From TrEMBL:
This is Homogentisate 1,2-dioxygenase. Its cofactor is Fe cation. It holds the Pfam family HgmA_N. InterPro entries: HgmA_C, HgmA_N, Homogentis_dOase, RmlC-like_jellyroll, RmlC_Cupin_sf. Residues 282-383 form the Homogentisate 1,2-dioxygenase C-terminal domain. Coiled coil: none annotated.
Amino acid sequence: MPFYHKLGTIPHKRHIQFRKPDGSLYYEQLFGTIGFDGMYTNSYHEQRPTQVKEIKKQYSVAPKIAVENNIKSYRLKGFQIKPEQDYLESRKTVLINSDCAIVLAAPLELTQNYFYKNTDADELLFVHKGSGKLRTMLGNLDFKYGDYLLIPRGIIYKIDFDTEENRLFIVESHRPIYTPKRYRNWFGQLLEHAPFCERDIRKPETLETHNEKGGFLIKVKKQGDIIEMVYATHPFDVVGYDGYNYPYAFSIHDFEPITGRIHQPPPVHQTFETDAFVVCSFVPRLYDYHPQSIPAPYNHSNIDSDEVLYYVDGDFMSRNDVEAGHISLHPAGIPHGPHPGATERSIGKTKTDELAVMVDTFKPLKLTEEAMKIADEDYYKSWLE
Ligand SMILES: [Fe+2]
């Protein structure tokens, strides 16, 4: 996150002696990105964070690709993904390219007896159903319906649900996920025209510090594999940290929509950016107010990006047949637009209650076998009169 945060106890300067009450040293860890050029955090640990005790096993969780080269529009019925007990096993990758993976999950319970770390990708979790607590080595965040949770790569975490019905829409990104640059001034502060500001971003405010030795299982994701590593010390043993690289939460309900006299293009909905895809939030808003405005979007060609819409709530004005939990995939290379009748139906309407998350990728997406299990194969014909 491009602003400074400090939690717990830290010494006056970086890289100097920082002693425990018994006189021994705390162990400093620089947690940085993009070599030494990106955002970083300096954290202070009770134990050395390097103590690998055992590597138990390694196995692939890479998704099986069903459709490699795609030009067909699809609808995926996301709520048909079956709930599963385990958090990691419940995660089903449905769309993927070399930059990102789009994952649906319906976990029934918390990450019980292990910790998890994704070393390859920043994880953006959108909470569609459920509530609980994200617990990380850099502090905890309470979450509920409508929250985006951004977990930078390398953060060790657990996720505790206090609900049984949980639905997550997840983007794993090999590119760092940032707030859009055009929303920030040259100091990094969010500008007046941005649809959210620093007050809307929830940073970790409580730190869990366990000074424990034993065997602690961390499931580490790297290059499509899970490696089960046992560490000799508790991964949540940080007494303090400061810096820019930490997990945070942002509620879609705090996104302030930008509206106009005529139809506004998708970038007004942008929430996050990478150099490989964008994430946008479509939220309840007033419609365009030109006397002859057409609130439904115009037909458009994604010449060079695949468009993924995840429907969260409300009535989606441009479609006749979408429900909460559905994903539409409109691939690059062909135009798409409102369903027959949706344009006419939108005229005269003054507001919408729709809630949706959009991911537009610059490289084409492949469909996985998990996607084909929940795919509507005839959706591509749904614009026929
Ligand atoms: Fe579109």
